[in-house]
Write a structure and sequence with these properties.
This protein has 155 residues and is mostly beta strands. The chain is built from no helices and 13 strands.
Amino acid sequence: EEISVNNPTFEASKGYSFWRASKIQAFVKNGDLVVVGATDDENVTFDVDNYELGKHYELGKSNFSVATYTKVVDEVTYSYATSSASGKGFIKLDPADKQVPGKISGTFMVEMPATGNALPETPSVNFNKGVFFQINLTEAPVVSPGGDTATASSY
């Protein structure tokens, strides 16, 4: 008997250890997809420019689709990221027929070099066999000139 679980998740192998985000979110801002997975002291963010379902996005080739990672240790933030000149990997969004309406799913692999402070003996951070699955997809919050926050769809 096969057991199927459809809980939203954001997880990967980080180095040689299993890593799972305890906080996840995904939103669209100006046609760009942003997917975030975080723990209490770590944050992984994917920013995919002008996204399309089913598309494969190479990382480390441009600044249009990027991955960032931060970790806070003793109030010091350590930063890693891909850019047009550094890092490598991919983000692959599942095709429309495998997506659930209002949610986003895909896979990823990424190697991010340090962009500022690097953790001791950690010049780069690697996530392999990564998956984000059925994360609720929302509109990005918009701050009005008066400082009130609303969703873009409420305008």
